[in-house]
Design goal:
The structure holds two protein chains of two kinds. Chain A is of the alpha/beta class. The two termini of chain A are 34 Å apart. By secondary structure, chain B is α/β, with parallel strands linked by helices. Chain B has nine helices and 20 strands. In chain B, the strands form two sheets. Chain B has a ten-stranded mixed beta sheet, covered by helices on one side. In chain B, strands 3, 4, 6, 7, 9, 11, 13, 15, 17 and 19 form a ten-stranded mixed beta sheet that branches. In chain B, 48% of the residues are buried. The chains are: A alpha/beta, B alpha/beta. Chains A and B meet through helix 2, strand 6, strand 7 and helix 3 of A and helix 7 and helix 8 of B.
Chain lengths: 250, 437
């Protein structure tokens, strides 16, 4: 589904990704872990199409089609979704208007008609129930004055509405209390299917207790230095990253 | 002959059109003398530092239209808000157009200046209010000298005016260039309420310069809601002076939507003559190319326990220029004043500019006054956030601009007007994002 080959990228002349290789198949959950500053969020932003980063070499393919020259919105239309580590506050634009615009613009790009209002309302209702979101929340400005937990729940709500084929969740667990974590994880688990894939970027094992990964990768210095199954995450939780850094050095 | 000389010398011709043995004419005679000595403001005048009238004064304007032009409804329909029942006072080239208007004298006066200026019945009210709210500068004295037509509105006490009033001045374009000087007088007596929408519209590509003066008297416990739509074409310039005098426990809200025109200058003054007054000024400016919009506001807090709120948003593209000059004066007696002023701007191009200058002059010691201004670009992270959800760049920018201006839109109390303005803005931004804010 998503195939990244030998991806190198830099920002302001600083190399951040130094040859990433990643194969994500439909139905899989991948976790990307690693110490601070290893390039995890950069990788997420580059897949989503943030323009500040320059891809110097390598390929990103989605369903066999190269996407690295596409704009962020075109990637979204093809099914890429990024749940932001720090969701942006946009005063004056309500969650509902935002999500309606996003859905209809995506449909427009695919040559489809706008979603009928009734269908949209039902979808809003169903998905807000899934994330245990109060309906009043939908008429508030996007992320404006939201708590950390509300922001993250709002991200997963958007994911539920947009139904992407590849969802990248960038530290969705940070800033969540245990109840919010459970709600968000349940939401993601319900959205998971054999037709889509999820990439979790996280520092901690605890999210992986709820959303169980098929593959765990360790990113260090802009490279995937170790891959394994869910046991690798447990090992990292127990031992930290120093042993990995040592391994790389040797 | 420059415009000033032309205006001064045409005053004699003007006197042939009006009743010179009247109270108002004594004021006009005095005003033309003052204009002759003061003239038009120049950039040397502090409050005109960033707005040069030179580019609009160089044109050889006709100062009186040479003929009466009849307009058909279909030609002006789109400039009216006609999906609501309203009173309409419509002028073409400065001349009242009765077949397009809807006025009344039943229980209140919603009519014309010319129909009241010389009538003995209205003499007391004219003597009490006419020219009483204005600071006598060159621009207003010029208007006063030639004042004979415009809207006259007098609402007696305890009257809730259910239909909004639309005051619209059209320039037919039959003159190759025309100067218009409408003069409006609005008096709302105690405990009454009304809504007004004012618009000036040029109907073709000929130049028009409008020097409009409006005096509004908001008597005790009254509520006035005023909307100015400035969405004219690129041959139209306007200097709009609006002076509002409020008495105790009154509320006056004025919205200015400056969305188009060659040069737009707004002189807006509020004088608070009693206690517990609320004065609210809101504005959205969205301009491009070489357009220029200048908001000059003055709030004069004279008595204790009053409030003023100013919230002006500006979006400037291409090489457009903006000015915000907001003065708040709090007199020594005006304790417990709460004055708030904000001016936020977004520059969409490297060549666009805004000069913003908030000024507080506070002589009382127990007051809450705040002011703030910001100038920035659209937030790149916010743009990426919207785009990452599948919203294309142009629509994403438009959405951010809507969001930026939204709190001003929220306070528009006439839904049809709100829709109209939202559509004008969407049209300007070249998007159809399919929802109303």
């Amino acid at each position: 589904m998503l195939s990244i080959k030998n991806l190198h990228a830099k920002v302001d002349d600083k190399d951040i990704l130094n040859g990433i290789n990643l194969e994500v198949k439909a139905g899989e959950v991948h976790a990307i872990m690693g110490p601070n500053g290893s390039g995890k969020s950069t990788l997420a932003s580059i897949i989503a199409g943030k323009e500040e980063y320059e891809i110097t070499s390598g390929d990103i393919d989605l369903n066999g089609e190269s996407i690295e020259d596409l704009s962020a919105e075109e990637r979204a239309h093809k099914g890429i979704f990024l749940s932001f580590q720090y969701p942006v506050e946009i005063p004056g634009v309500s969650v509902t208007n935002f999500i309606k615009t996003a859905i209809n613009e995506t449909r427009k790009a695919k040559g489809q008609e706008e979603m009928p209002a009734k269908e949209m309302l039902k979808l809003l209702k169903d998905k807000s129930n899934l994330l245990e979101i109060d309906r009043k929340f939908l008429s508030r400005s996007i992320n404006d004055g939201f708590s950390g937990g509300e922001k993250k729940r709002n991200e997963i709500f958007q994911m539920a509405m947009l139904e992407p084929s590849v969802a990248i969740l960038d530290e969705t667990d940070s800033g969540l209390d245990i109840d919010a974590l459970r709600i968000v994880a349940n939401g993601v688990n319900k959205l998971k299917s054999s037709k889509n894939a999820v990439i979790l970027i996280t520092h901690y094992q605890r999210l992986l207790d709820y959303i169980v990964p098929d593959h765990v990768h360790v990113l260090y210095n802009g490279k995937i230095v170790k891959s394994g199954n869910k046991d690798l995450a447990l090992e990292l939780e127990a031992k930290g990253y120093d042993w990995i850094k040592e391994e790389v050095k040797n | 002959m420059d415009l000033k000389e032309k205006l001064v010398s045409s005053f004699i011709a003007f006197e042939n059109q009006v009743d010179i043995d009247s109270y108002v004419h004594d004021i006009r005679t005095e005003a033309i003398k003052n204009f002759e000595s003061i003239g038009f403001p120049t950039k040397k005048n502090e409050s005109w530092k960033y707005t040069s009238l030179k580019q609009v004064l160089d044109t050889d304007y006709s100062v009186f239209p040479s003929k009466n032009t009849a307009l058909v409804y279909s030609k002006i329909e789109k400039y009216l808000i006609d999906d609501i029942d309203s009173y309409k006072i419509i002028f073409v080239d400065g001349i009242y157009c009765s077949h397009l208007s809807e006025t009344t004298h039943e229980g209140m006066d919603i009519c014309l200046m010319s129909s009241v200026l010389n009538k003995p019945k209205y003499a007391p009210i004219i003597e009490n209010y006419f020219n009483k709210a204005l600071k006598k500068d060159g621009i207003t004295e010029l208007n006063t000298a030639f004042s004979k037509e415009g809207a006259f509105i007098h609402i007696p006490k305890n009257k809730f005016v259910e239909k909004p009033i639309q005051i619209i001045h059209f320039n037919s374009g039959n003159e190759s260039s025309l100067m218009l000087q409408p003069r409006n007088l609005i008096i709302v007596d105690e405990n009454s309420q009304l809504q007004i929408i004012e618009r000036h519209q040029n109907l073709n590509e000929n130049e028009v310069l409008t020097n409009s003066v409006t005096e509004i008297f908001v008597n005790p416990k009254s509520i006035v809601d005023y909307y100015k739509i400035q969405n004219d074409n690129k041959q139209a310039s306007i200097i709009d002076t609006t002076s509002i005098v409020q008495e105790h426990n009154s509320v006056c809200t004025l919205h200015t939507f400056s969305l188009g025109g060659k040069l737009t200058r707004n002189n807006l003054t509020f004088a608070q003559k009693g206690e517990h007054i609320e004065s609210i000024m809101k504005g959205i400016t969205i301009i491009e190319e070489k357009q220029h919009v200048d908001h000059n506001t003055l709030v004069h807090h004279i008595k204790p326990n009053c409030e003023s709120h100013q919230d002006y948003k500006g979006i400037f593209d291409d090489s457009s220029t903006g000015v915000f000059n907001g003065t708040v004066v709090v007199e020594k007696e005006a304790q417990k004043t709460n004055a708030f002023q904000a001016n936020n701007n977004v520059l969409l191009s490297d060549k666009a500019s805004i000069n913003t200058k908030p000024q507080l002059e506070i002589f009382a010691d127990d007051v809450k006054c705040s002011h703030g201004c910001t100038i920035g670009q659209l937030d790149k992270n916010a743009l990426f956030y919207l785009k990452s959800r599948g919203i294309p760049e142009k629509e994403a920018k438009a959405l951010l601009m809507y969001g930026f201006a939204n709190n001003v839109m929220q306070s528009v109390k006439i839904p049809e007007l709100k829709n109209r303005i939202t559509n004008i803005i969407a049209g300007k931004l070249g998007v159809n994002i399919g929802f109303n804010l």
